[in-house]
């Protein structure tokens, strides 16, 4: 055999190693699996400090760490040697063939037993020998016997085995119990196919490049450049699958209110029983306010521990109507539900892909649903997986409004029910037609409270309520839980509650109308007689505008003072949520009532649009809302003309103008295509493409000036962050800019801290990349400065100094200059003084601040300047006056 052929066979072995390890790395994505790290070619350098690398590491091709990379904290550690043979794949391994491996494993076992603080670690360590060749039957039988026997009288083969280990009898048996010999593993050709299939299990469709990227990740960690960082973590695998944020795995978390103090319904057991017996999807319907969302959550708690119930919230406190918080798409709902199932260790996660369509997501979801059902039924054949979708009608209404594909609940109802699963969809009775359920779907109606339930509800707040009072309360509210809750929350005494409800029975609509009348009475106290009719304009605005509706806009439209609008919302009570100068509906019944009561017909809607359009040039929110109103009024021609003509755009902020203009193009394009106006669609597509290029430049400008965005576009901060428009060259860099932007606004600082932590996690991941990849995904000075500013806004000067201390001198000095310029632009001179005084161990930051202050004829505090001068005096070097390098910048700073 020539050397060239031998090299090829050796390459086969390497390839086998990479593919096998890549498959194992996918387990890092599985929740509750507890695998936290996979080390390639040796053990992790994060193992306890006293454990210096030993000769035993030469046989460790892969090390797996569960719970922690630190041995003292790990739940389990597996040391694995891999062996592959192309020409002798059928030749069994004998004891002599793996003698070197056995000895090395035993040496490591001995070290662990002798290491202080690891007395119990031996029981948490596993040694594996894995090969595509078979294990000799005699060897496999010998190991089995050694694990079970007392080892007092060993046969000759067993004595040879023990001699290889150099362990006494007790330690030898313990070692044997930790040892696994696994033969007949797939060869490298079959592993290549298996890796592709495994990777596909995590994605909605087949990404042919994903397994290649995973294999290359392992290959890179096996090279000399990764000698000091050979560990693969979850972030590394997500990077290979092109995911930069774990939030992408949970895009629509539930915002349903807690079930504290919820009342068990008399119907509950019967409905749950029918759901469990149903062989078809179940549609639970009821009028508004009867308690569908509460029942959806109570269903979740009614299943036994071996069954799993996932509740999906389609309403999301009204955020389902926001472009940045959509909940109706397959990539929203199906990904969220699948990954909640995965979080229960029932199936693989569903990693979203930008190129996958609705069909791909549905197939991937059903596959995971089937896998989850099989998982729970393997433990108990009667166990079930139940998927509950609350407010499915809202999801479909939003999809229709946007001229989008059908919502995922509507499509899900048309799919055959997976064996061992149940599907429950909630919607309003009058909206069943939106979901167009197949005839096979079983419909169950939820009834209002019975007398006993109304009694419990009332007596929780008024425990002394008599049966007569309960009779009145139950009769006047029609047993509607929402009417009851609203009435109880608005009044202090029982007599006031009953008086507000009487004297006749009220439906949910009449009850909410009564609340509006109460709010109206309060508002009238602050306005004159002529202005009282303006309350209708306020209600109409709330009905047709998308959340979050600025109070200032409502004030302009209605002519009421902002304080009166706020009073109206406060008096209306819990269904309206006031959030940082905006209003939104907290409750779906209230939103529905508003939209039914105040939604104008086509002629009235035209008049409303005419009221709003003059405001568009001066208000970005209104400018972004007008296209949706035109779409709702079915004025497609006007919508197209508005987009093409570029009229009614805000003039004060070019950035907001461009963003709104692009949204108009996209909305008008979809509407034109749906209306088969193909000529208009072609023009819009051309303009949208051109605008997209300009939009990229705008987003770059916003990213470079997060401080200005926070100052001049505070109302857009939420959408900018959740629109994920920021980002740099390194994966996860968007979190740095999101943290910087959010940190300027007090109400978002908790979230800013979370984003900053994510940025640091990805930065640590970047630092472990090979040199070539780090250069390709370079961290820019602006990235570092943005994180430094976020640190200051969140933690103060100490946080900024700590952050900059982690970077090289030139880098931190330049980043410090950029930070100083931003602070100077905002007149934050006290902040700069604080930074300079806290930079005791970082004189280069003092110099950076001094250099920028010098440009505007200001100076650093005297103490800080003295420290910087001492630093320069100890680092003397001749600087040519024309040499503008780092030292010359230092000189400029000190002079």
Automatic annotation (TrEMBL):
Which InterPro entries does this one have? P-loop_NTPase
Q: What is this protein called?
A: ATP-binding protein
**What organism is the protein native to?**
Candidatus Obscuribacter phosphatis
Query: What taxonomic lineage is listed for the species of origin?
Result: Bacteria, Bacillati, Candidatus Melainabacteria, Candidatus Obscuribacterales, Candidatus Obscuribacteraceae
């Amino acid at each position: 055999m020539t050397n060239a052929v031998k090299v090829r066979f050796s390459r086969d072995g390497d390839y086998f190693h990479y593919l096998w390890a890549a498959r194992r790395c996918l387990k890092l994505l599985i929740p509750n699996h507890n695998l936290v790290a996979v080390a390639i070619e040796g053990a992790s350098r994060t193992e306890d400090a006293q454990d210096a690398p030993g000769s035993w590491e030469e046989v460790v091709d892969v090390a797996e760490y569960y719970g922690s990379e630190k041995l003292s904290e790990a739940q389990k550690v597996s040391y694995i040697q891999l062996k592959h043979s192309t020409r002798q794949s059928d030749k069994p391994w004998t004891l002599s063939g793996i003698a070197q491996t056995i000895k090395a494993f035993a040496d490591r076992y001995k070290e662990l037993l002798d290491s202080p603080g690891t007395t119990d670690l031996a029981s948490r360590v596993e040694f594996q020998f894995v090969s595509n060749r078979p294990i000799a039957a005699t060897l496999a039988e010998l190991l089995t016997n050694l694990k079970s026997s007392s080892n007092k009288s060993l046969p000759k083969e067993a004595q040879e085995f023990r001699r290889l280990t150099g362990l006494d009898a007790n330690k030898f048996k313990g070692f044997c119990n930790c040892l696994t010999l696994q033969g007949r593993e797939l060869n490298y050709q079959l592993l290549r196919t298996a890796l592709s299939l495994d990777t596909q299990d995590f994605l909605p469709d087949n990404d042919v490049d994903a397994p290649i990227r995973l294999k290359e990740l392992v290959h890179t960690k096996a090279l000399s450049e990764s000698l000091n960082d050979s560990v693969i973590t979850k972030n590394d695998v997500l990077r290979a699958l092109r995911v930069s944020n774990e939030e992408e795995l949970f895009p629509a978390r539930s915002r349903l209110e807690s079930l504290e103090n919820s009342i068990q319904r008399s119907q509950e057991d019967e409905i749950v029983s029918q759901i469990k017996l149903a062989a078809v999807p179940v549609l639970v319907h009821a009028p508004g306010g009867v308690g569908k969302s509460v029942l959806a959550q109570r269903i979740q708690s009614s299943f036994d521990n071996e069954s799993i119930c996932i509740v999906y919230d389609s309403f999301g406190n009204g955020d389902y109507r926001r472009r940045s918080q959509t909940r109706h798409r397959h990539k929203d709902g199906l990904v969220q539900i699948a990954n909640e199932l995965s979080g229960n260790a029932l199936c693989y996660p569903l990693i979203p892909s930008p190129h996958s369509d609705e069909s791909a997501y549905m197939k991937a979801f059903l596959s995971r649903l089937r896998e989850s059902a099989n998982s729970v039924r393997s433990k108990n054949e009667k166990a079930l997986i139940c998927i509950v979708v609350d407010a499915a009608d809202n999801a479909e209404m939003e999809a229709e409004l946007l001229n989008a594909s059908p919502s995922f609940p509507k499509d899900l109802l048309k799919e055959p029910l997976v064996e061992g699963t149940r599907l429950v969809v909630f919607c309003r009775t009058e909206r069943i037609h939106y979901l167009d359920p197949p005839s096979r779907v079983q419909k169950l109606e939820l009834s209002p409270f019975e007398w006993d339930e109304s009694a419990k509800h009332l007596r929780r707040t008024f425990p002394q309520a008599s049966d007569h009072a309960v009779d009145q309360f139950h009769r006047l509210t029609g047993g509607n839980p929402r009417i009851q809750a609203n009435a109880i929350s608005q009044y202090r005494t029982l007599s006031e509650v009953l008086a507000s409800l009487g004297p006749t029975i009220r439906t949910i609509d009449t009850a909410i109308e009564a609340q509006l009348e109460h709010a109206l009475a309060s508002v009238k106290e602050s306005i004159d007689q002529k202005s009282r009719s303006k309350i209708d304009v306020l209600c109409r605005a709330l009905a047709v505008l998308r959340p979050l509706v600025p109070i200032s806009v409502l004030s302009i439209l209605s002519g009421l003072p902002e304080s009166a609008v706020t009073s109206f919302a406060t008096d209306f009570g819990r269904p309206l949520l006031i959030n940082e100068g905006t209003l939104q509906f907290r409750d779906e019944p209230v939103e529905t009532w508003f939209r039914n009561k105040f939604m104008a017909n086509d002629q009235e809607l035209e008049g409303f649009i005419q009221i709003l359009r003059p405001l568009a040039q001066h208000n970005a929110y209104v400018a972004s809302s007008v296209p949706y109103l035109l779409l709702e009024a079915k004025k497609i021609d006007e919508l197209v003309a508005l987009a093409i003509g570029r009229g009614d755009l805000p003039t004060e902020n070019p950035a907001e103008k461009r963003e709104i203009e692009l949204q108009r193009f996209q909305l008008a394009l979809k509407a034109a295509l749906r209306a088969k106006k193909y000529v208009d669609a072609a023009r819009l597509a051309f303009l949208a493409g051109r605008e997209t290029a300009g939009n990229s430049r705008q987003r770059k400008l916003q990213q470079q000036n997060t401080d200005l965005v926070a100052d001049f576009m505070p109302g857009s901060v939420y959408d900018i962050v959740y629109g994920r428009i920021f980002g740099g060259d390194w994966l996860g860099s968007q979190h740095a800019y999101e943290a910087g932007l959010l940190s300027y606004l007090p109400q978002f600082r908790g979230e800013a801290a979370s984003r900053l932590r994510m940025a640091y996690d990805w930065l640590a991941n970047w630092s472990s990349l090979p040199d070539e990849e780090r250069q390709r995904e370079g961290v820019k000075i602006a990235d570092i400065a943005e994180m430094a500013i976020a640190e200051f806004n969140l933690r103060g000067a100490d946080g900024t100094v700590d952050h900059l201390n982690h970077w090289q001198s030139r880098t931190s000095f330049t980043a410090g200059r950029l930070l100083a310029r931003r602070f100077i632009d905002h007149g934050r001179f006290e902040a700069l003084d604080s930074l300079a005084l806290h930079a005791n161990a970082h004189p280069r930051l003092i110099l950076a601040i001094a250099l920028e202050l010098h440009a505007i004829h200001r100076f650093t505090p005297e103490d800080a300047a003295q420290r910087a001068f001492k630093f320069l005096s100890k680092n003397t070097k001749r600087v040519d006056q024309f040499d503008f390098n780092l030292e010359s910048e230092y000189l400029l700073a000190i002079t």
